[in-house]
């Protein structure tokens, strides 16, 4: 089925949208996203998966773009985008949108890498605009399909729409013509689509890393004249191959105001408080509340009192993991998150460390959990809830339910808490000057004349000695 | 998955009673009893002695053809574009050879990339059944990797050939997991799905990774697979092969550094798609260990198709059919065919949108046009490399013929390279009707190119960029590949 002109409309829109069309709402929200993404990325440079990817990429010597949190390593932009993207998603700590994807990690690393390549001269506003183009295109593409609205089963969404967002954003930053923007999207489409099976494994972060680098490369190839199918979004056997139902629409300026209707204006992202799959945030809040009820009744909670735990969650196989063996599985386990909350009365970054996962007390609690998937609990981040029910050895029942966790788009983090999350994360690898520098630069990014200062702050790593001791808990 | 296991174990139950704890093991299969693990084991355990003479012979023909089309492909615009990109967007890293460019070397994954582009740039590379282009995804990667390995540990020719065959075999096995794969594709371009996996497998073999790492290499590669058909018949199509090669190599390198991915990527897990994300129907089968003896490579049973001219495989049927009509026409009249003689041309072809193009506008589209290839062969008696030049494509006689073509999709002509046919029926101005039909073109696996024909194709291709003596040396080296102690004898002749 060939509908005419959709891809063309995308190419034209990416090419012509201007900074003047950025609304205040969009500017504020996207700056928050940028700050959060940098923070989780900096923290993520301490992960094993990041270090493997870095070693792999360094095999290609020299050159140009910053690796976040490293003062003495630069890489070709393609590989900088790759490793920084991996860092951002390494701990599943990055933002989540509705329909479901992790939009920023696929886009920001590519843009920052590109901004550092010659001829340079990227202003803060250029960066902000390109960033929003990358987010917007992802949002648009996900609305082409009903399938995209639910927690995924087949392809991991960042690998489908993320690479398209990165290509669009990079094309914008490079100032490509409308036709070149179309070709960038087409070339990127041939790199889309990673199966969900690699979620909850060490390879999941590569989905974001690959999206960032392959989108960047698609734009670079389009810039030097490579052509793909100029109707890539129009065709079922184009971008439509990634979805069972596919109904694309054109990207047109708002006929009434001549302005541009940004999806981000109407639909905010969720920012995570925990480095775990979004679904975990509901179950943790519910578990903590249920524990609170138990504590109120019995004074102090002893785990031997807990006979049985029932979780009522939406159906989704890849986050239903009764006995996680790795940190990646733990971040994708309703059971683990609930039991951590019950055991420690809090869940933090440190809760997902290997040493925490294997605690006997935790394993014991895990053996007492059953999971139910009630009919009314839909596998959608916009509609789901989590209920935790504790049954004591005395036969008492304490239940709590979470419909909207703090950090969800319906209940966004305050600016203060967002900046706090960034500070804690960034301080794990940057010195204070770097941390504060980034906050200041992003806070006023519209006024920034040249982005290179951002890169220099991201490279202000604290000494290894200091890093060893920066183990603050969220 | 569990029922499959039980099916294979049942005969044993009949023979002797199993220990009770073993029965419990069956109910909860150990991770090692998965399809994914069986593939990992196969790749790590396969040895040169498992290659039969037929497989050796056929795979050496594939290696030679692949290098040849890669060499001529290095003269194309898309290759030049890809090479410039790699040279300027990345840091200089003089390690792996670029086909046909003396003195140009790139980092291994980028060399695999550009050589992959070259191989598929003209749609001149080999095609298998079920449909994919297997060699272009694998050979550039194993060559690039060989250049990367330390000089005191270069693979022998036989080790290179073994890795190559592993890459082909894995692709064949994966395609047999799905009925959808047996037909001309509609959704994902097969090289982008199985090619990446083949490249990862071949490189894992060459790196001698252990079975767990081989498994992870496949899983990492799965996250790098999958490109839509819409980019076929465009300038980007060659990148599907190029990326398959490069990313499969990357997957193996990442696995060698310890990166881990899903241990169930080839298995079926309800609610969480693995490799089956790329197929509508999917029934995976474990690979038996080669050490049990009796493993037969698919290449032994299913030979390769080689192209005589640079166009989609389907074109070869109508070209041969139209060529026979050309013979009839030339036989009765003057030495050339003129559009003035022709009233109508009817093509009977399988139904496949991306190769049905009445008026192709680019060389890429022309290589994917039944109509174009039929008319070229009708006019010239054959289709060659030159048929796709701008001059040839814009000939008024050709355009005149194109305007007289009608297309039919008979029910008995399925979109399947093992079953299709091509029929060309020309109605002359006088009312006479001439008909040509091709069931199996020369070069198809049922009617393979002779060694002479294949070598002639190679000489024509390689000769466009290499001096004659070097062309002959390459022919000799590939012929002796399984007996060569150091693969540098091959690597040194590629540019």
UniProtKB/TrEMBL annotation, chain B:
Pfam families cross-referenced by the UniProt entry: MmgE_PrpD_C, MmgE_PrpD_N
Catalytic reaction equation(s): cis-aconitate + H(+) = itaconate + CO2
MF annotations from Gene Ontology: aconitate decarboxylase activity; protein homodimerization activity
EC number: 4.1.1.6
Chain ranges of the MmgE/PrpD N-terminal domain: 39-272
A GO CC term attached to the entry: mitochondrion
Localization terms from the record: Mitochondrion
Residue ranges of domain MmgE/PrpD C-terminal in the record: 309-482
InterPro entries: MmgE/PrpD_sf, MmgE/PrpD_sf_1, MmgE/PrpD_sf_2, MmgE_PrpD, MmgE_PrpD_C, MmgE_PrpD_N
Domain of life from the UniProt record: Eukaryota
GO biological process: inflammatory response; innate immune response; positive regulation of antimicrobial humoral response; tolerance induction to lipopolysaccharide
Record key words, sorted: Antimicrobial, Immunity, Inflammatory response, Innate immunity, Lyase, Mitochondrion
Main location: mitochondrion
Protein purpose: Cis-aconitate decarboxylase that catalyzes production of itaconate and is involved in the inhibition of the inflammatory response. Acts as a negative regulator of the Toll-like receptors (TLRs)-mediated inflammatory innate response by stimulating the tumor necrosis factor alpha-induced protein TNFAIP3 expression via reactive oxygen species (ROS) in LPS-tolerized macrophages.
Family: Belongs to the PrpD family.
Oligomer and partners: Homodimer.
PANTHER family (alphabetical): 2-METHYLCITRATE DEHYDRATASE-RELATED, CIS-ACONITATE DECARBOXYLASE
Protein's UniProt name: Cis-aconitate decarboxylase
Organism the protein comes from: Scophthalmus maximus (Turbot)
Lineage start: Eukaryota, Metazoa, Chordata, Craniata, Vertebrata
């Amino acid at each position: 089925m060939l509908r005419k002109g959709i891809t063309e409309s995308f190419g034209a829109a990416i090419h012509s949208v201007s900074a003047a069309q950025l609304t205040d709402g969009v500017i504020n929200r996207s700056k928050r996203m940028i700050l959060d993404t940098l923070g989780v990325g900096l923290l993520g440079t301490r992960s094993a998966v990041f270090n493997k990817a870095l070693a792999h990429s360094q095999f290609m010597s020299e050159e140009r773009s910053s690796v976040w949190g490293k003062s003495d390593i630069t890489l070709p932009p393609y590989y900088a985008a790759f490793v920084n993207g991996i860092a951002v998603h390494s701990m599943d700590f990055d933002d989540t949108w509705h329909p479901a994807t992790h939009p920023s990690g696929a886009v920001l690393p590519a843009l920052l890498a590109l901004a550092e390549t010659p001829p340079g001269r990227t202003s803060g506003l250029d960066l902000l605009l390109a960033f929003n183009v990358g987010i917007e295109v992802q949002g648009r593409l996900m609305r082409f399909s009903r399938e995209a609205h639910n927690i995924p089963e087949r392809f991991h969404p960042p690998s489908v729409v993320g690479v398209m967002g990165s290509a669009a954003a990079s094309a914008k930053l490079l100032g490509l013509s409308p036709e070149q923007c179309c070709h960038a999207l087409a070339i990127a489409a041939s790199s889309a689509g990673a199966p969900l099976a690699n979620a909850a494994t060490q390879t999941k972060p590569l989905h974001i890393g690959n999206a960032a680098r392959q989108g960047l490369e698609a734009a670079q190839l389009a810039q030097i004249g490579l052509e793909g199918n100029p109707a890539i979004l129009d065709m079922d056997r184009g971008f439509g191959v990634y979805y069972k139902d596919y109904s694309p629409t054109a990207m047109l300026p708002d006929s009434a105001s001549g302005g541009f209707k940004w999806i981000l204006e109407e639909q905010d992202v969720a920012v995570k408080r925990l480095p775990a799959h979004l679904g975990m945030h509901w179950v943790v809040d519910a578990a903590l509340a249920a524990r609170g009820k138990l504590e109120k009744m019995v004074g102090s909670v002893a785990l031997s009192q807990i006979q049985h735990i029932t979780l009522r969650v939406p159906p989704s196989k890849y986050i239903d993991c009764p006995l996680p063996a790795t940190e990646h599985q733990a971040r994708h386990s309703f059971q683990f998150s609930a039991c951590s909350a019950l055991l420690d009365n809090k869940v933090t970054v440190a809760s997902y460390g290997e040493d925490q996962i294997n605690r006997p007390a935790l394993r014991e609690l895990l053996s007492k959990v059953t999971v139910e998937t009630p009919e009314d609990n839909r596998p959608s981040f916009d509609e789901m809830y989590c209920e935790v029910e504790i049954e004591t050895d005395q036969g008492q029942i304490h239940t709590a339910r979470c419909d909207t966790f703090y950090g969800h788009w319906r209940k966004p983090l305050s600016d203060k808490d967002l900046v706090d999350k960034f500070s804690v994360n960034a301080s794990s690898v940057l010195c204070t000057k770097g941390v504060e520098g980034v906050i200041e630069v992003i806070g006023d990014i519209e006024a920034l004349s040249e982005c290179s200062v951002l890169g220099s702050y991201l490279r202000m790593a604290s000494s290894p000695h200091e890093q060893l001791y920066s183990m603050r808990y969220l | 998955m569990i029922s499959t296991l039980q099916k294979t174990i049942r005969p044993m139950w009949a023979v002797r009673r199993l220990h009770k704890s073993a029965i419990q093991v069956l109910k909860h299969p150990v991770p090692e009893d998965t399809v994914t693990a069986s593939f990992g084991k196969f790749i790590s355990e396969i040895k040169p002695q498992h290659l039969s003479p037929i497989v050796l012979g056929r795979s050496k023909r594939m290696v030679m053809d692949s290098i040849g089309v890669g060499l001529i492909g290095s003269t194309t615009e898309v290759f030049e574009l890809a090479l410039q990109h790699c040279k300027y967007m990345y840091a200089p890293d003089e390690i792996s050879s670029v086909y046909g460019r003396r003195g140009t070397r790139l980092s291994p994954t980028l060399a695999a990339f550009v050589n992959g582009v070259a191989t598929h740039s003209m749609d001149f590379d080999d095609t298998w059944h079920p449909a994919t282009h297997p060699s272009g995804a694998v050979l550039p990667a194993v060559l690039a990797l060989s250049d990367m390995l330390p000089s005191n540990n270069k693979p022998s020719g036989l080790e290179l050939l073994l890795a190559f065959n592993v890459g082909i075999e894995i692709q064949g096995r994966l395609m047999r997991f799905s009925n959808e794969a047996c037909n001309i594709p509609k959704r994902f371009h097969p090289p982008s799905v199985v090619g990446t996996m083949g490249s990862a497998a071949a490189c894992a073999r060459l790196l001698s990774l252990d079975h767990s790492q081989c498994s992870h290499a496949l899983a990492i590669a799965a996250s790098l697979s999958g490109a839509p058909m819409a980019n076929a018949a465009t300038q980007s199509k060659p990148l599907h092969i190029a990326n398959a090669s490069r990313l499969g190599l990357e997957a193996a390198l990442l696995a060698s550094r310890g990166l881990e991915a899903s241990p169930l990527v080839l298995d079926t897990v309800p609610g969480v798609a693995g490799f089956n994300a790329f197929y509508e129907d999917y029934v995976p089968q474990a690979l038996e260990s080669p050490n049990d003896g009796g493993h037969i490579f698919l290449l032994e049973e299913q030979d390769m198709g080689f192209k005589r001219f640079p166009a989609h495989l389907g074109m070869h049927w109508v070209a041969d059919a139209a060529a026979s009509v050309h013979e009839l026409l030339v036989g009765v009249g003057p030495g050339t065919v003129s559009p003035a003689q022709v009233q109508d041309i009817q093509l009977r072809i399988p139904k496949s949108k991306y190769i049905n193009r009445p008026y192709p506008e680019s060389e890429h589209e022309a290589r994917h046009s039944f109509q174009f290839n039929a008319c070229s062969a009708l006019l010239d008696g054959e289709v060659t490399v030159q048929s796709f030049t701008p001059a040839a494509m814009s000939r008024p006689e050709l355009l005149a013929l194109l305007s007289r073509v009608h297309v039919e999709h008979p029910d008995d002509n399925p979109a399947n390279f093992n079953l299709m046919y091509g029929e060309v029926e020309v109605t002359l101005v006088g009312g006479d009707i001439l008909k040509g039909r091709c069931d199996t073109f020369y070069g198809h696996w049922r009617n393979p190119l002779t060694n002479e024909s294949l070598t002639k194709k190679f000489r024509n291709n390689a000769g466009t960029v290499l001096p004659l003596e070097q062309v002959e040396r390459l022919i000799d080296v590939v012929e002796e590949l399984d007996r060569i102690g150091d693969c540098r004898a091959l690597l040194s002749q590629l540019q």
